[in-house]
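The following record pairs a protein chain with its ligand, N-(5'-phosphopyridoxyl)-D-alanine.
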Amino acid sequence: MDMIIYNNSIFERDSINIDLEDRGYQFGDGVYEVIRVYNGKLFTAEEHLKRFIKSANEIKINVPYQVGEMQEKINELIHTTSLSTGIVYLQLTRGVSKRNHAFPSPPCEPVYIAYTKELALPIVPMKSGVTTITVEDIRWLRCDIKSLNLLPNILAKQEAVDSNSFEAIQHRGTIVTEGSSSNVWMIKNQVLYTHPANHYILNGITRQVLLSICKKTGFVVEEKPFTIEDMVKADEVFLTGTTTEVMPVIQINKQRIGNGDPGTLTRQLQQLFTSEIEKQCGNLSKSFD
Ligand code: PDD
């Protein structure tokens, strides 16, 4: 029996109907989050839930639940669905109302859903690295909001899939922004570079965790824009994201990065990131040796 969260209570999936005039369905008028689960425990839950509320507030939706009560219910769902390794998907829409672009007046109740999904471990490409392509970033100018409107991201990812690549690295003109569902980093002469957290990218939680790991362990990071040319000439390139974790990039547009193998520092960062997961969620039976 599939169990899900609907408006912060747990129901059987089949007992819930989503209205065809839900504004999420009609307009993509809502926000979402993806939180990782390891050993049945949420990783960086609070950070994701706070960003969920922030995204909602940015599009003027008030989340009718506190971080603590959402987290409690999600933990209950993880327990109910016996999820060990996987993700929780959360979504909040402005609610159900007769189709009209402007906000409903009086406002309608937001619709909140969450469900769990299993994800297999270990992810093989994390050891061997992935190939990527570059695509023009055609998204709007509020990429800091984790909005349901993902058409440009979907088109970019499909382009990657069509060219047998894992991810599409987006750029505005010559400047690299981020992947279709990940943040992008490059390393040159032992210095890490990643796009600053502004309206052009989503400030990834994985990105933030890695920044704090770098600070603690003495890796030098510059949150500074870099060009496609800088990136393809870099010593190492990698992606970060909730499902991607720390993923080495070995090729961009069929051009090898470094010697074509995952970089040494990237592998060190993978190990440090794994230790961080283990601190929160317990021992993971995977290694990057
Ligand atoms: N994507 N940039 C974009 C555009 C993203 O969609 C994501 C995450 C990230 C990485 O953010 P985080 O580290 O918080 O996961 C960056 C999720 C996983 C998704 O859409 O499935």
